[in-house]
Amino acid sequence: MKDAMGYELSGASARSASALEQGLREFRCYIDDPVATANRALADSPELVMGHVLQAYLHLLGTEPGGLPVARDAHAAASALPANDRERRHLAAVSHLVAGEWRAAGRVLEDLSVEYPRDGLALQAGHMIDFFVGDSRMLRDRIARALPAWSEKIPGYHAVLGMHAFGLEETGDYARAEAQGRKSVELEPRDGWGQHAVAHVMEMQGRRRDGIAWMRSNPDAWSRDSFFAVHNWWHVALFHLGLDEIDEVFALFDGPINGNGSKVILEMIDASAMLWRLHLRGVNVGNRWDVLAQNWEAAGGAGSYAFNDMHAMMAFTGAGRHKAAEAVLDAQRAALESAGDNAQFTREVGFPATLAIKAFGDGNYAETVRLLRPIRSYAHRFGGSHAQRDVIDLTLIVAASRAGQNRLATALLAERAGAARKAPAATKRSTIEKLIEAA
Q: I need a labelling partner for 112 at 20 to 30 A (CA). Which of 90, 176, 206, 321 fits?
C-alpha cells in the first residue's frame, strides 16, 4: 500500500491509509482532531507504522508535559514493527525528540527530506523543530530544498508554500514571504499556518491596518475547528494593540484567545504574552493574571522547555504568585544539569530571561536591564518567532525607562524605528516623548 505521495506504507490497509491521509491533512491545516483520526487508522491497522509516527509527533510538537509518555509508547509500538527506510528515519527522529534532542531530530528529518522530498510530514515536523530551536535559516531552507519536487497538482502543496512563507519571513524576505503565504491561503483557505505567515510579515513591517484587514477578511476559514486559532487571534490582538485599541484587545483576549480558560501550553503562552504587553503599558488587566497563573500551575512541566518557562513566569509575576515563580526557577536550575537540548536553551537564554521577568515584577528594573541586554542578540536560540521574542526587547525598553536609563531607552527606540518596527507598540506615546526629551 502506498500513500498519496507514492511512498510505501508498512502495515496499511486501504481504510487505514485513507484515515492516515486525512490525519495528515488535518495536521497540515491545524484543524479538526488529527489525534482521533490517527487513532482510527491504528484501530483498523495496528501495524501501521506511520500511524504511530503521526501520533508521536502530535504529542511531542505541542511541548505538552503530558504528551511525552504517549509519544514514548507510540515510538515503542512502531519500533517493534517491520518498517522501511523512510519510516525508520522517522522513528529515529522521534527517538531523539523523546530524549529531548531537538537538534538531532531536526538533522535526521533534514536528511529524510533530501531523500524523500514529498514526505510532507517530515517537512512539517522538521519545520516545527526549526521553530522550537530558533533556526530561522532552516525554517526557510529545509522547505526550499524540497519545493522543486512539489506542484499544485500534489496534495498538500499549500502547506509547503505556507511553511516556506514563514521561513522567508523569519529571514527577512518579506515580499516573497507575503506572496508565498497568500498563494498558500488561495489554494487552501483553511491553512492556518499560511494565514499566520502573512500576519507575521505585516507585524514585522508595522502594517497594522493591513494586518487586521487580512485576518478579518475570512476568519471563519482559519479559525473554524482549528487548534491554531488562538495564536492567529493573538496576532489580530497584536495589531490592535499596536494601534492603542485596548478595548478591542480585551475583547479578543476575553473571547477567542482566553475566553475558555485554555490549559493548552501554546495557548497559555499567547495569553501570557498579551497580558505582559498590556502590563508593560501599565494597563490594569483585572483578575486575568490570577486565572491564567492558576492554569499554568495546573499544567506543570516547568524546566522542560525554556521558552514556556519565561511565559509561565509572566503569569506568576503578574498574579503575585511568588512560590510558583520560585518553583519555575528551581526547575530551570535542575534543567541546567539535565540531558537534552533544553539545558542549553535554558543556560543561554531561558534562565536569564525568566529571571529578568521576575526582576521586572519585583520592580528591580536595573536588574532587568542587566539580564536582558546580553541575551537579546541571540534570544532566538531558545525558540519562538521574531514577533514572539519581541517581548524581550519591549521589556528591556520599559525597564530601561523605569530604571532612569533614559538615554538607553531612547537609543533602543531609535534602533526599533530603524528596523521598520513602529516604536509605540509597547509604551505610551507620552512615555516615548519624555524619553526623547531627556536624551
A: 176
